[in-house]
Design goal:
Length: about 375
């Protein structure tokens, strides 16, 4: 600090065009004292900081080269330096370097986040007995502070890291409570939560959560495959497009959705119809059309009970089939396919299924209305 302060005093004095003697006269000291300040041989008395700052037209903080925290770029640079030390096996040097910066900037949450992350990453570097445990506990302390970061992305990363550290320390309840604090949906948190449930012996809950996690991952994989198929289509690579669409089918066959959700599968099927039709492979296009219709009628499975809006407030079966019908009839398909009797019969089959589903739902809605009327009548009689 002495050297930095001396340089600041000298730079600001020269910027104002003052000699050491002139500055000394302004603050009531000797020119020799100013010389000692600038050469870092001595420091100004605390009582002189404000007069000196006024004489140099700056603040005491500027004189002391003080800032409450570092910029993110500065912290990242310090983190890279410390990481090089850890990677080189210089554990003590890296530890001292990090702890020194943490003492210098105790209120810097981003610095705490970076140092805590480094301690967690290089737990095994020291090779000293008991040091890994000490380093783990220190990493937890730092991450607990870093969870107060204002930036949501950084806060999310800190919370997720802290939960993982709690797991390493076998503080499973604390880990779960930390995951509960994560803002929004976080798939990494769900995966960790399932792992914690397994360690706690809660097998049914762990299985349920892992099943849900698998469903999310499969859905994302299918979306990515569909996106790649669309890219292949734009490039005119029909063979690759067909291979990618077939991969979606294989995923659905190997991991059927227990909820019956086949939306992406139907989109892939429709893309396959368009592809076959575009290549003039009419028989394959017709077979794919019939498959599309059969799947649209089959999913979601179940009768009106539990599937119509009146029963559960969800999306009705008729609505889903109507949506599939609209997808098929509005697709950009050539007349050589859509004017064929077999294609028209397939469409009519889906139309009939929509009408049947609507009739079932209307019947269910009417039944609920009658039941409610009878219940209200009974209540009135009792009164």
């Amino acid at each position: 600090m002495e050297q930095n302060m001396g340089k600041v005093i000298q730079a600001k004095r020269r910027a104002k065009g003052m000699t050491q003697e002139q500055l000394a006269q302004l603050v009531g000291v000797s020119s020799a004292a100013v010389s000692k300040w600038e050469t870092a041989s001595a420091l100004p008395d605390v009582a002189l900081l404000c007069p000196l700052a006024r004489a140099l037209d700056c603040t005491p903080d500027e004189l002391l080269d003080f800032k409450p925290q570092l910029t993110e770029q500065e912290v990242d640079a310090l983190g890279e330096t410390a990481e090089c030390m850890f990677q080189a096996g210089k554990w003590q040097k890296a530890w001292d370097f990090c702890e020194g910066r943490l003492r210098e900037y105790p209120g810097d949450l981003y610095l705490a986040f970076r140092c805590g992350g480094l301690y967690a990453k290089y737990l095994a570097v020291s090779g000293q007995e008991g040091q890994a445990s000490r380093q783990l506990r220190r990493a937890i302390q730092l991450m607990e502070r870093a969870c107060e970061l204002a930036d949501e992305e950084s806060q999310r990363a800190a919370l997720l890291s802290l939960a993982g550290l709690y797991v390493l320390e076998d503080q499973l309840d604390d880990a779960m409570a930390t995951l509960d604090r994560l803002p929004g949906c976080n798939q990494d948190a769900q995966n960790m939560r399932a792992s914690i449930l397994l360690r706690q012996g809660k097998l049914d809950e762990a299985e349920q959560l892992e099943t849900a996690n698998l469903s999310v991952h499969l859905h994302n994989a299918q979306l990515s495959l569909l996106g790649l198929a669309n890219i292949a289509k734009q490039r005119g690579d029909e063979q690759k497009q067909l291979e990618l669409l077939d991969r979606i089918d294989r995923l659905i066959e190997q991991f059927p959705d227990p909820e019956g959700g086949q939306g992406i599968g139907r989109v892939a099927s429709l893309r396959r119809i368009e592809l076959y039709a575009g290549l003039g492979r009419w028989e394959e296009a017709q077979r794919e059309t019939e498959r599309f219709v059969a799947d649209s009628i089959r999913y979601p499975e179940g009768d009106c009970s539990g599937s119509c809006p009146a029963c559960n407030g969800g999306v009705s079966r008729a609505f889903l089939m109507k949506n599939a019908l609209q997808m098929l009839t509005e697709a950009n398909l050539p007349a050589q396919l859509t004017e064929q009797p077999d294609w028209r019969r397939a469409v009519e089959r889906l139309e009939q299924a929509v009408q049947t589903a609507r009739a079932e739902e209307n019947s269910c809605t009417t039944g609920i209305r009658v039941e409610k009327t009878e219940r209200d009548s009974n209540c009135t009689s009792i009164v």
